[in-house]
Here is the input.
Amino acid sequence: MSADLMTPRLSASPFSRANPVSKLAAAAVITVVVMLSVDWVSASVVLAAELLLMPVLGVNPWLLFKRGWPLLAAAATGAWATALLAEKTGAVLFQLGPVVFTDDSVAGGIAIGLRSLAVALPGIFLLLTTDPTDLADALAQKLKLPHRFVLGALAAMRLVGLLVEEWRTLGLARRARGVGAENRPLAKAGAFVGQAFGLIVQAIRRATRLAVAMEARGFGAGRRTWARESSYSTVDVWVLLGGVLIAAAAAAAAVAAGTWNFIFV
Amino acid sequence: MGLQSTTAVPGPVPVLAEGWGWRHAGRKAPAVSDASFSIEPGERVLLLGASGAGKSTLLHAMAGVLGDDGEGEETGRLTVAGLRPSDARGRAGLVLQDPESQLVLARVGDEVAFGAENLSVPRPQIWDRVRESLADVGLDVPLDHPTAALSGGQKQRLALASVLAMRPGLLLLDEPTANLDPDGVREVRDAVARVLDRTGATLVVVEHRVAVWADVVDRVIVLAAGGGVLADGPPSKVLAESATRARLVEAGVWVPGHTPQLRLPAAPAPGGPLLQAVGLDVARSRKAGPVLRAVDLDLLSGQALSVTGPNGAGKSTLALTLGGLLAPARGELSTTPALHRGAAQSPVKWKSAQLVARIGSVFQEPEHQFLTSTVADELEFGPRRVAKLPEAEVRRRVDNIAERLRLTRLLRANPFTLSGGEKRRLSVATMLATGPDILMLDEPTFGQDANTWAELVTLLAELVADGKSVVSVTHDADFTAALGGSAVRVADGGVQPVQTLRRAA
Ligand SMILES: Nc1ncnc2c1ncn2[C@@H]1O[C@H](COP(=O)(O)OP(=O)(O)OP(=O)(O)O)[C@@H](O)[C@H]1O
Ligand SMILES: [Mg+2]
Here is the structure.
């Protein structure tokens, strides 16, 4: 996935005002149910619900596609591979030499593809609709995760975003010293390794400097207060309810259709 | 916990050093030794000294962030408000030289609130402090403005506001106006003065250019390069009395009213053109819009060209484009046979080895260009690998440049551990040693004391006399005047007419 998945484009939808913890809980419930059974009914119900809810969640479909297309490709590849390799039961649909697709193998492939999308989307929605700072606030204040850890991770995430720009600058700076990437493959590979090493050095340097700056501002010692209060509102009730409803509907539909196959039995 | 108890007693903070010293792990010589002084609450101190004399080290020590025994060896005693600095954290507020590296959060308001949160200030008071600090430094942006979208000068003021929200009794500033344009320098200095007038906090500021702070401070402490304190007293005395003045000049302090003596070779009449830009639009990347449009520029051999202009105007982008590192967004950048010598016409198409033999770019941030793990290797890299000089000549060249730029005692050191000014000299020195036809320098003199500055100017003037071209992006008016040649001003999306300078004799 592209690196700018990290930067949410927040819309004014009510969903983006929900507490990140309740979004996290809803996403978790849905994910767990989809993970429990490999079948196309439960996966399609969840996927359909996710796609239908996009306007409510304030997720822009075009943006989602632009940033999430590698995921789509991965799901399609997974589906193809499963259809190709799964047990060949049921009627043969297509055969060309050793390549055989049957009823059941294709159904298995579709289930895998749908399932990977259904599992991935809640997490992506969470990232797309949540400000990282709000997420950190919620994790520390509501879930009581240690603030050193949460704020450290938040600062590190900002640095990761900067590394993309850093990589470009390093490339130019090294070319200026005469060690840029050239046309010959071997030289290119060598230059890449050197630049990657340079990037690691810079990442460590930046992290160290930032740690000093944070320490100088009193970070890390004992108790702290929070400038932004992480709070729950009625939106959170709806978000949780929505998550549970989608999960229940998916399981019920699969059981009714007789496709529910509990992964652990 | 020391922090909680000390935040209860706000107010100006005293600092006491008794024979204090620090040796960084991995270095033979101490960075600071035998420093003794007593700073009273509310005093405003300008800390001076040659590049590498240990000013930043001392400042970090006062802020309590120098690290523990693993990172160096301490001698003597240093106390802040009577406590060990690491126990008095929160009483002292440190603004690092590079504002970029101290940004923690994504939004301006949250960034300023961060320090106050860490000091357990109750929520409603935090936001009062945030608004007050931002007003103090004159940063007028919404609280949810992204920190990444600020200009250099704004970032520096944000860093200052972030520290002020902690209500420190001791304000520590490490070259807070380096790399700012003259307007930015005045803005930041005035913001600091305003804050001090209101809070009465103690100030210790490090800055090479004394004139900027002379009116704000009431005391000057000069660290001697070899250890100890060279001079200590009110600016009127330390900077005016002829006996101390002479000693300071000798030590490389930028004493107001004294420009370093330069013995420069005569500037030649510029020769034929090397590089020509016609209707050039420059942009950071293909996607980003152009920052400068329709630039026409000729670079001649034996020409010194200074590029000036406000922060964020696009000077560095122009230098990168002229240096063959960024592709022109539009228009043409072509080279004459005297420069391309059979390679492609357009410098972006050159292989990197061809490029560095012809145009040597020195970036604003020195660390990006370091390739090796010792200063000596760094200096030898160009002459040996690029210019392919015989070993004896490599040695001669490197020794000469290291000697003149005062890097000789650092030859075994790791480039990343150098002081700010030393890093700058090293990155310029690597290109001087490589010896391309055109040098493209971004802020070549930042962080230099008067002695290293003079040596740098002399080296560059010698190159120009030799028929090479030197392009410098700079805010340093003394430098532009001393080197002479011509100057262009980058502003408002374009390059303004060339104005010819006469070298101040
Ligand atoms: N982390 C480090 N590890 C090893 N040596 C260091 C480290 N930081 C600084 N030094 C060395 O300690 C000495 C003092 O450095 P310091 O940064 O305090 O100088 P400075 O007076 O601030 O110089 P400048 O004016 O160039 O910024 C220098 O010789 C420098 O090379
Ligand atoms: Mg320094």
About this structure: The pocket of magnesium ion (ligand 2) is lined by residues B 55-56, 174, 419-420 (CB under 6 Å). Residues 273-501 of chain B form a domain with the Rossmann fold fold (CATH 3.40.50.300).
